[in-house]
């Protein structure tokens, strides 16, 4: 009695050049078939004749496929074989990546938005609770921006907000993620960073704001930043508790006279 064919779920397959005239297909970790089937697919090499439109030099960039894989109920040269059919979805994949980027990005600044921030903070909180990895949060907003908007126009206010985003990109580390919550309020998530390290980074960022934003001052009105800094604590029930504590520290910085950093 023959074996019943095993049907693997759809998987994303990526085609990369391995050597001149050949390409290899790799399955993404998502929805991959059992390791034995994956091994069979990974070892199979295609010539340029097997992929429509592929030149002798092979692809210049990854080609994405959506494939369906099925184990066959017979053997070839005493080896198990699989049948798979793939459709080139490179254009669709690029569009999906672009749409995902747009959904996570603030249009004015190019920084991450609240949606992306909340997703990142949830992951940071889980890592902090499970592995005791320190994570800090910096929340800040701009002092006197409303006055600048009223006296010099909202286009200048937008220019200031974009300048703040540029300063964040040039000052923060690659592991930090800066997000614009809305208006003139921003949050920076700093993974693997304790409160002392976060305060040093906040002071550096604060000094950059003082140096760069002075050019937007109007008469006696100076654009500065007030900041609240905190770290995820063991007693926090979620990242929202940490975020609220950073917000309270920011509120204290405002009440103490603005243009300063308060930790909590």
From TrEMBL:
A single GO BP annotation from the record? negative regulation of bacterial-type flagellum-dependent cell motility
Query: Which ranges carry the GGDEF domain?
Result: 133-264
Query: Which enzyme class?
Result: transferase
Question: What EC number(s) would the UniProt record show?
Answer: 2.7.7.65
Q: What GO CC terms are in its UniProt record?
A: plasma membrane
By its UniProt entry, which CDD domains does this protein fall under? Answer: GGDEF (cd01949)
Which reaction(s) does its UniProt entry say it catalyses?
2 GTP = 3',3'-c-di-GMP + 2 diphosphate
Its needed co-factors are: Mg(2+)
Location in or out of the cell:
Cell inner membrane
Gene Ontology molecular function: any one: diguanylate cyclase activity
List the InterPro entries hit by this protein, alphabetically: Diguanylate_Cyclase, GGDEF_dom, Nucleotide_cyclase, Rev_trsase/Diguanyl_cyclase
UniProt-listed PANTHER family: DIGUANYLATE CYCLASE DGCM-RELATED, REGULATORY COMPONENTS OF SENSORY TRANSDUCTION SYSTEM
Protein name stated in the entry: diguanylate cyclase
Instruction: List the source organism.
Output: Stutzerimonas kunmingensis
